[in-house]
Sequence to fold (225 residues):
Amino acid sequence: LARGAKEPDLAGRHVVVSAGGTREPLDPVRFLGNRSSGKQGYALARTAAARGARVTLIAANAALPDPAGVDVVPVGTALELREAVLRASADADAVVMAAAVADFRPAAYATGKIKKKDDQEPEPIALVRNPDILAEISAHRARPGQVVVGFAAETDDVLANGRAKLKRKGCDFLVVNEVGERKTFGAEDNEAVVLGADGGETPIPHGPKEGLADTVWDLVAERLG
Ligand code: CTP
Ligand code: CA
Fold:
């Protein structure tokens, strides 16, 4: 093994990682989106592959090169992401939801470009909820012992919000990080705490997204036994 390389402790495992951010179309030229770069999810996919796992990366609008040896499934919307994650998770040992999933989508899609009218204020955009994919895969594990990990970016009461969210989602681990104007989104580095459903708390010091990814896989590998 190369210096600093991890043991192939995920050999024989299939892991699913979602990455990037969904885009919810309003019309053929516009969408509602978010600032997720996909870097953390891609780092998770790369590090899992380096540790011997078979990796399926569900990639939502990330402008990043396909990691070598990883099966990449491109998606656009939250509904497409849900379909792809559910399909790939059927035989997965672990599912990590690093993607930023839009909570809402436009209630209607205009098949033609929405035009402004000279003498009128714009119509409000009506939204409907998207399904909660993390809660769904946590509640209906495709195989016994499947490990499910979520991510949460919080701005206030980071740990309290994280604990409540972990419980609400029903996943095994929730990686919580604090976001601000210049924190996390698009950055090369990340800092977080991993909350475990068993009450565990694993702080991850500020550092490259690969380091955070390796800590997540350490916890997943330990849980898988
Ligand atoms: N998630 C999901 N499906 C959704 C929304 C979120 O699977 N419709 C997943 C994300 O991929 C992430 C986790 O849930 O792993 C937490 O996302 P977050 O947006 O923090 O959770 P929400 O329940 O949407 O809470 P909030 O109201 O704070 O946005
Ligand atoms: Ca959300």
User: Anything to note?
Assistant: Residues 78, 97, 99, 101, 103, 130, 132-134, 150-152, 165 surround cytidine-5'-triphosphate (ligand 1) (CB under 6 Å). The helical segments are 39-50, 78-89, 133-139, 158-169, 209-224. The radius of gyration is 18 Å. The chain has a mean pLDDT of 94.
